[in-house]
């Protein structure tokens, strides 16, 4: 057994297998995979009735909006006080832009809102 294994030629990089050797195998694999793709009938790739039902089902599953409750009420502070701490989710104007605290803040370091948990949403 050892002699039989020893007589097997060692593969050489780039020489023992060529693209021409692999091409037929790849073509067969692609042909097989493509053969499982559904063929559209009469140029139609969907059924309008099925699509309409799917859309109606999805829309009917959405919760109905409640008066005064379908949007988040934002209270935007007129400025970021660099000596104060603010809870996560606080909105404020700062340097001409709208900012949001993405974590609890603990005052500002060197006047830099970014380093203290604020992220800019819009700028002027």
Question: In words, what does this structure look like?
Answer:
By secondary structure, the protein is an alpha+beta fold. The chain has a domain at 76-122: Seminal Fluid Protein  PDC-109 (Domain B). Helix content is 28%, strand content 13%. It is built from three helices and four strands. It has helices at 2-6, 19-35, 48-60, and strands at residues 76-77, 91-94, 97-101, 118-122. It has a four-stranded mixed sheet, with no helix packed on it.
Can you describe this structure in just a few lines?
This is Putative portal protein-like protein. With 124 residues, the protein is an alpha+beta fold.
Topology as H/E string? HHHEEEE
Head-to-tail CA distance between termini: 79 Å
* Radius of gyration using CA atoms only: 32 Å
In the sheet with the most strands, the strands line up as 1-2-3-4
CATH class of the domain at 76-122: Mainly Beta
SS summary, helix count = 3
Give a short account of the largest sheet: 4 strands, mixed
Extract low-pLDDT stretches: none
The coarse silhouette is flat
CATH topology name of the domain at 76-122: Seminal Fluid Protein  PDC-109 (Domain B)
Mean pLDDT: 84
Q: Mind telling me which CATH architecture of the domain at 76-122 this is? A: Ribbon
- What structural class do helix, strand and pairing data support? alpha+beta
Portion in strands: 5-15%
**Helical amount:** 25-40%
Q: Count of DSSP E strands?
A: 4
């Amino acid at each position: 057994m050892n002699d039989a294994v020893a007589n097997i030629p060692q593969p050489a990089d780039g020489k023992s297998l060529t693209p021409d050797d692999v091409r037929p195998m790849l073509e067969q694999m692609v042909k097989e995979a493509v053969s499982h793709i559904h063929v559209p009938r009469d140029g139609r790739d969907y059924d309008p009735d099925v699509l309409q039902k799917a859309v109606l089902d999805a829309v009917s599953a959405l919760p109905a909006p409640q008066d005064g409750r379908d949007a988040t009420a934002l209270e935007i502070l007129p400025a970021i006080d660099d000596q104060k701490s603010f809870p996560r989710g606080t909105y404020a104007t700062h340097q001409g832009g709208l900012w949001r605290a993405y974590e609890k803040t603990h005052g500002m370091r060197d006047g830099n809102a970014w380093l203290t948990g604020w992220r800019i949403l819009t700028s002027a």
